[in-house]
UniProtKB/TrEMBL annotation:
Family annotation (Pfam families): TetR_C_15, TetR_N
Protein name from the UniProt record: HTH tetR-type domain-containing protein
Record feature DNA-binding region, as residue ranges: 47-66
Keywords: DNA-binding, Transcription, Transcription regulation
Signal peptide residues on this chain, from the entry's feature table: none
Length: 217
């Protein structure tokens, strides 16, 4: 389920990060075109030519920013995961009574909000794991999410830090994020809006697991 940057050499990447407004607009057109095509043709049906045509740009313009279609898919994941981070931060700031249950519910439903706004993301994340860069980026993002939420929970006094050492707490937090991520993949596998029952069960699953480290349990 979390933003971090994949370092050089981990897989396909953008040729350059656009600085000018016109270039940024072109990149966003490319990403939106690719997202639309993923919903229609799936990840495997995507090509650089089809993306360029849908974006109404010459293929040469696409290659100014992306080396291939895998780089476009990675950029979509980077964009959408960053949006998830922003949504989580916004929603957590609005929680009136913080508990383990309210924190987990808020975080996981924040991700669902973004899945609904960015329906191509889950398809890319589920079907695009043969792309090593996407897989590595997702795992790195999950690890970063776990670190951030662990720090948040400790600062809020939600976790009984004394019963586990720092490494154990980090492993528990990372496992909780990975379990939630996998459970959401199941919930969204056959329904682009997500199976409501499975979403609720995923939240209950992670909440129950983290109850073991709740303060004052």
């Amino acid at each position: 389920m979390s933003s971090a940057t994949v370092g050089p050499g981990t897989g396909p990447s953008r040729r350059r990060v656009p600085a000018q407004a016109r270039s940024r607009e072109r990149v966003e057109r490319i990403l939106e075109a690719a997202a639309r095509l993923v919903l229609v043709n799936g990840v495997d049906g995507l090509t650089t030519r089809s993306i360029a045509e849908a974006a109404e740009l010459p293929v040469a313009s696409l290659y100014q920013y992306f080396t291939d279609k895998e780089a476009v898919l990675l950029a979509l994941c980077e964009r959408d995961m960053a949006e998830m981070d922003d949504q989580v931060a916004t929603d957590l700031a609005a929680v009136e009574e913080l508990t383990i249950a309210s924190m987990v519910d808020t975080v996981m439903r924040a991700f669902v909000k973004v899945y609904h706004r960015r329906p191509a993301f889950m398809q890319i994340w589920m079907r695009g794991r043969t792309n090593t860069a996407i897989y590595d980026y997702g795992r790195h993002h999950n690890r970063r999410t776990a670190e951030n939420l662990l720090a948040f929970g400790l600062d809020a006094g939600l976790l009984a830090a004394g019963e586990y050492d720092e490494q154990e707490l980090a492993m528990i937090a990372e496992l909780a994020v990975e379990v939630g991520d996998r459970a959401f993949q199941v919930a969204f596998e056959n329904d682009p809006r997500g199976d409501v029952f499975l979403i609720d069960q995923a939240i209950a699953l992670v909440t129950g697991y983290l109850a073991k480290i709740a303060a004052g349990r």
